[in-house]
Amino acid sequence: MNYQQPTGFSHDQADKIGLLITNLGTPEAPTPKALRRYLAQFLSDPRVVEFPRLLWKCILHGVILRIRPARSAKSYQSVWTEQGSPLMWHTQAQAEALAAHFANNANIEVAFAMRYGAPSIASELDRLLQKGVRKLVVLPLYPQYSGSTTGSTFDAIAADFTRRRWLPELRFVNEYASHPAYIAAVAQSIHAYWQQHGRPQKLIFSYHGVPLNYLHKGDPYHCQCLKTSRLVAEALGLSGDEYLTTFQSRFGKQEWLKPYTDHTLKALPAQGVTHVQVVCPGFAADCLETIEEIGEENREYFMHAGGQKFEYIPALNSSPVHIAALAKMLEENMVGWSMASAEVVKQRASLASACPFNAKS
């Protein structure tokens, strides 16, 4: 096997630290063709759909990819902006803000990648290693760990590393569901919203759902979601009857984590709750699932059931408090790392050139 090395590598290249944030991904355009490519990659991941591979391949390509792309394209069209996909430009803005935060350190390179679609993890690793990154922190923007999200991201990193000659030292953040900086950022965001719009009768913490059997198989996602809700509620001084934790975005007929967000919102008005606010702490950036599914679809469920006021509290996106929290977590994961001095790099290059084999790569 021919192992890959960074393009233009030389031994006199300065060593750097790479900071890579990742998110799920997005289609290139809100069209059935683009959705078909995106969904084919996403739904082919065995971490996302745990089902016998051959049978799932037949279902995916024989049924789902013939029907779902057109439906999904309509949903994406409703949230698409002049800047493109909200998830894409929010994540890019987060990377740019982090780069500005670390701008005074010439040894740090910041990048972002998507697990599915572009920019791919492989392409961004290429770019970082070409710039001399020898130590790498990967921060998937999933506060709560799940095998279908964070685990899949690690799979992509590991698969890429199997074809590289020189591997960077790796630190991988697999969750930050209870990190104090993250909890404080979510609580501050909610409190700031209350200052402008008032408080609801009930605050709903809505997280992306996963099949119930993932929990039974040991996935910690459900427990971490409940912990995040509890810690944020405590930071806000909420009592147990002032908030709920629910799960959205089901797919297929199997049972998923409960209570379901849509079922909850349909039932609340009959219980006398006519004013709710929904926040989605599992999403680091606003996207289809928050803007359309929560802000539009679930709003309609609640209002049609007799609700009087429904408000969605935006994700943290690239807000200063969020960037500060992400930067703190990245800084914590760089503790103990030091870069080779210019003199050491010079000596390394000299030794390489004097090697009997005249190693240049």
**How much β-strand is present in the residues?**
5-15%
Principal-axis shape equals globular
Strand arrangement, major sheet:
2-1-3-4
Distance between the termini: 17 Å
- SSE topology string: EHHHEHEHEHEHHEHEHEHH
Give the tally of β-strands: 8
C-alpha-based Rg, rounded:
23 Å
Helix content: 40-55%
Observed structural traits:
four-stranded parallel sheet, 8 strands, 361 residues, alpha/beta
Would you write up a description of this structure?
The chain has 361 residues and is of the alpha/beta class. Helix content is 47%, strand content 15%. The protein has helices at residues 32-43, 53-79, 86-101, 121-130, 147-161, 180-197, 212-216, 221-236, 261-267, 288-304, 320-333, 342-354; strands at residues 16-25, 108-116, 133-140, 169-172, 202-208, 243-248, 275-279, 309-313. Helix 5 (147-161) links the parallel strand 3 and strand 4 (169-172). The model has no long low-confidence stretch (mean pLDDT 94).
Provide a brief overview of the structure.
The protein is an alpha/beta fold and 361 residues long. The chain contains twelve helices and eight strands. Strands 2-1-3-4 form a four-stranded parallel β-sheet, sandwiched between helices. A four-stranded parallel β-sheet has the order 6-5-7-8, sandwiched between helices.
